[in-house]
Design goal:
By secondary structure, this protein is mainly beta. The protein is built from 1 helix and 13 strands, in the order E-E-E-E-E-E-H-E-E-E-E-E-E-E.
């Protein structure tokens, strides 16, 4: 047992965790999706009103009890339109973050409990995308109208007010005799004011199978940047993982 040395010193005081601390094997469970409520012709395309909900939970798989590490939630109302190769989406979005009870209890038993950061915000984002054959380029940003994030954990002189994202993804039908199969991939950049605009990068590549409106995708994904676990947003994180995404 030893202090978790990877935690950013301004994020929270050091705490003890059960081994291993230098590296982890984690399972990530993500549930959610987009739900259309109303769709109608508009201009040369369509406009849709709908909602989105998502939950991202991590479990520490090297431990016998498989501690739940974190749970991040998102819910949003969205309006989007598709006009030829262009798509635009605007959302009103709420986020909240919670440290896993089992992880908190494990650190308490070791005498140096992890401090849960108060995190949550409400904001509005706007994204645009342009299709270029099998490639889609996208970019956008978010204005956070209300934030519950503890001020003392923000980057010095910064606020939890703005964040941006840009990148591209691709869906290439590489096998003409099997059009239901395709090669997929992408590269994503994100940065937020709360971390002093420190960039985060993610890349993925794999295959996708489609059957009507249903699909399944298996990709290898790499990440380097501010942790995707919202409770540890000041801490650097690097990982490579195998990701299965099913849209039933």
């Amino acid at each position: 047992m030893r202090p978790e040395v990877a935690v950013h010193p301004l994020e929270r005081p050091p705490f003890l965790i059960n081994e291993p601390a230098a590296s982890e094997l984690m399972a990530v469970v993500n549930l959610g999706g987009s739900y259309g409520i109303y769709r109608a012709p508009w201009g040369r395309g369509l406009v849709e009103l709908g909602g989105q909900v998502g939950m991202d939970t991590r479990f520490r798989m090297k431990l016998p009890q498989k501690d739940m590490f974190s749970a991040d939630w998102m819910v949003a109302g969205a309006v989007s339109t598709a006009q030829g190769p262009w798509t635009v989406r605007a959302r009103a979005i709420h986020r909240s973050s919670h440290m896993g009870d089992q992880f908190l209890q494990a650190t308490e038993r070791l005498g140096e409990p992890a401090h849960r950061i108060q995190l949550g915000n409400d904001g509005f984002d706007l994204y645009g995308a342009r299709g270029l054959g099998p490639v889609r380029l996208y970019a956008g940003g978010e204005w956070i109208a209300y934030s519950e994030t503890d001020v003392e954990v923000l980057a010095p002189g910064e606020a939890d007010r703005w964040q941006g994202q840009a990148g591209f993804d691709a869906d290439w039908q590489a096998w003409r005799r099997s059009p239901q199969w395709s090669v997929v991939g992408g590269l994503d950049w994100q940065s937020a004011q709360r971390t002093g605009w420190r960039p985060s990068f993610a890349a993925e590549a794999g295959v996708q199978f489609r059957h009507g409106d249903r699909s399944a995708r298996l990709v290898l994904r790499g990440f380097d940047g501010a942790s995707e676990v919202f409770q540890f947003f000041r801490t650097n994180e690097k990982f490579v993982g195998l990701e299965l995404v099913v849209a039933p």
